[in-house]
Amino acid sequence: MSELKRTQLYDVHVAAGATMVDFGGWEMPIQYPTGIVAEHLWCRSQCGIFDVSHMGRLDIEGPENVKFLQHVLSSNVLALDINQAQYALIPNETGGVIDDVYLYRFEESKYFLVINAGNIDKDLAHLYKEAEKFDVKITDVSRDYAAIAVQGPKSKDILMVMSGGAPLTVENAKNSLNTLTMDGKNVRIAKTGYTGEPIGYELYCDSADAVYFWNRLVELGAKPVALGARDTLRMEAALPLYGHEMGECQLGGEIQAYASPLAKFAVSFNPDKGDFVGRAPLLKQFEALKKILNRDYSSIGDLPYRIQPICLLGKGVLRAGFPIYDARNGEELGYVTSGTMIPYFETEGTGIESVITERSAKRSIGLAYMKSHVVTEFEIEVDIRGKRVPAVVTACHMRQDAPPYTRPILYKKTTVEGPSQVTDYAAKVKELFIKAGENHVWRQQQCINLIPSEMTPSKATRLLQISDPCGRYAEHKKQKAFDDADIPYYQGTKFIVACEELLAAEMRKFLGAAQVEPRCVSGQMSNTAVFSALMDWKNRVDRKRQPQRLGWIMNNHIVRGGHLSAQPMGALHDYVAVDPVTEKQMVVNFPVLPENPYKIDVEATKVLLDQYKPEFIVFGKSMVLHKEPVAEIRKFVDEQGISTTIMYDMAHVLGLVGDYFQKPFEEGAEIVTGSTHKTFFGPQRGVIGVSYKPEDLKWSLWETMQTRTFPGSVSNHHLGTLLAELVSAYEMNAFKDEYQKAVTENAKWLAKCLAEEGMDVAGDPAVGYTETHQVIVKVGYAKGPEVAERLERNNIIVNYQATPEEEGFTASGALRMGVNEMTRFGFGKEEFKKLAHLIAECVKGVEVKDEVAKFRSGYTEMRYCFSDADTEAALQGLTGVLGI
Amino acid sequence: MNFPAELKYSKSHEWVKMIDDTTALVGITDFAQSELGDLVFINLPAEGDAVTKEESFCDVESVKAVSDVMSPVTGTVAEVNSELEDEPQKLNEAPYEAWIAKISDISDFEELLDAAAYEAFIQK
After folding, report:
1. Is residue A868 domain-resident?
2. pLDDT per residue over A269-317, tens digit each?
3. Within this chain, do residues A280 and A230 fall inside the same structural domain, yes or no?
4. Which fold has domain B8-109?
5. Residues in B touching A385 (Cβ below 8 Å)
6. Closest CB to A341 among B40, B43, B85
7. Residue A866 lies in a domain
8. What are the backbone dihedrals phi and psi of residue A639, each rounded to the nearest 5 degrees, phi first?
9. What is the largest CA-CA distance in chain B?
10. Residue A343, preceding bond cis, omega within 30 degrees?
11. 3-class DSSP assignment, residue A613
């Protein structure tokens, strides 16, 4: 037997007392003295480091390197931007897998391919042979670099100590890369890993620096994890391992590429990719898979087996190789490809408030190669050394979509809630009255509400909401035949039709808009109607082919404050195109200033505008501290002759339109959407305003927006709130100057007071941290939900918020507050100063509930609305008429 | 590593604690648990099972593998330590408290070592 190879870190492993084994020709640690279970749990709760220097690393360069990679890999290499990585397979000619690999693009013209240690010789032989047909150079640089995976919830914090606080990867997203200096040494870093951790990185450093980095990571709190726990971690994450879920099949022959659930991410049949090794058999498997997923088994022969997670229900431990049978009829289904007993931390509580305890338990889970008709919840039996033990097919063993922690998904039969069991409805009604009354008193008299997207409407607004039109319909549509006159479809609606016209006129005045569509009942519906209209309008000259979707679209990224209603995952979902080359949705995000991620970087935006020439630009966000650079971008696109449509989604800041914030149409926006109940005074509705005039090209776009509102989005447009919105528009136009001045001043003042209380306030201090009604305070990575809950228990209502540096709402480290509602209840400088102190005390852990309730009870009088004696008398009259 | 003097040891790494002339508790040694690594499952014998010296009477599983536990005596299983089913890690944490089975009616023993001899044996 040839001598075993050793990595740059061999001596460190031995010194740490690791048990060393032969792993594919390498002398590698299988476990450290603490053992596999402790190593697994440490990675899940803290930070584990893994020596992965044994893996093969190749530089692929030369004029035809992309063509070569497109030929030998399954993925679409053209989709890979600089500083991105992708998972791929090296397929063979028969639809099997030679290896699974990760392709990195750290440099413009050189690709870095990481291959499995045990497959290096086989991979290289295949790649060198295929490379003969291309002008490409493959260099084995495995020995030049060491590789250390740094995985787990604390990994980012630890690595950022070494980067001196610099962001680790170019984007804070999976598969993003960077080249940077850590402790004065060059490293390449990737947000990738093989543990399923939502926060995990892989470092590539010079071989000479390997020991330094390993020891430094340990010093900063990471613990070494060896191959044993690497296997249990990847198994829990249901990630495939070559030799188990790929390669040779225990039933004979090879495992097909599409048997692995990751294949659908790794394989691309993009026309730009062209033919590649294994394309034809892979396409056949993919066509069969699509049918199988629709439970159509007519092509099951092309993909007879698939790999799925399984969970043992009876006693014992799943092990690779155990046969599997159908629990109903004993039919042999396949075999376990990977399995063992895997530890996890128990949790207490439910939902966002669930707490990961320090108690651990274990479960036997694994992956299994089974006939393709087997689906989730399928009951199976595993033959454990002659004993049939019940098990079940599951969708997953854990989830990674609640960063910073992974969450184990313990098997339980999916139950569907049955119908209500109520019989005594009279009692239920009375109970509801009492509870609604209690809630009203709590929110209106005892709680200080700082949710920036909420508003208590005035008494007049509330009363009008429940007056008669609240139960009516008033559908109407402009008819060309009647010279664009609005034709109502129902009788009895003349009053509400007149009110709707008055409302449109008030909103035109408020927004400075040429036209207003007031029928949308929410801000998100306003956006959907606009997107739908834009897409329809784009296709107006050719109705005979499949309508084209919108692309490119420039918007604010969701983690930088962009709202769902302008994201592909939200209201853009059905309107945004997929780029045929990169196979990604055609959305490009506004870049932000490095020193202030809450502000768009105008100069960097201009570069992207030139590059992408977006057909649609959407300003506006829900975490908003600063003005949007509408005027600058309008000027730039006009100068460059970029044909685009500029929209400003003013949902949050609709009530601030004016001298104290922004005048969107004067700055060059064509479309403004918004919701009427955040900074605006109204009931909960939406609005669309446009700048278009009858002679404009886009007048027909405006007409389309109206038809995409009705009948496109809404039929009954909630007439009670429509009437109420009219009075709130009157209030707004009458009081906006003093209200807007007070809100913007109060926000800056609250920010200043919170900063003086020692809290970490986001935004640009030079402009008083905020230019809107919002204040963002950072309370520590992933601490947001817990702190917001503590404030609620103390009658201070805020919402937790992920900052631009965080991975998503579960990792929220900030609180978002708005001064709008409390300003309307009469809070000024003195009150917000007192509030800042109460918040700071409460965040520190002091109970302030009673003090807050007492404080709040003194501010129940609504401002910025008509409260003179005549108005009060008229309101009393209306109350009498309504019979309340 | 710890090898209490009052116990006897088998060459297949089990310990035996005599309660009376024909009854004993049986478990695995500190050396055995350390070699096996984290134990995550035990397949206990059933009460009333007849066991035979130098034959497997139980198996334990670590994250990586299954291992047989050999019986150091011939007799009958009188009682099993069912706590180990829920907490097999006790075999790692306290191997001499984590007895696996009480064997009664012992009729034969394999050649058992005392602590010093066992320690010398595992040094080889």
Report:
1. no
2. 999 899 999 999 999 999 999 999 999 999 999 999 999 999 999 999 9
3. no
4. OB fold (Dihydrolipoamide Acetyltransferase, E2P) (2.40.50)
5. 66
6. B40
7. no
8. -65, -40
9. 38
10. no
11. coil
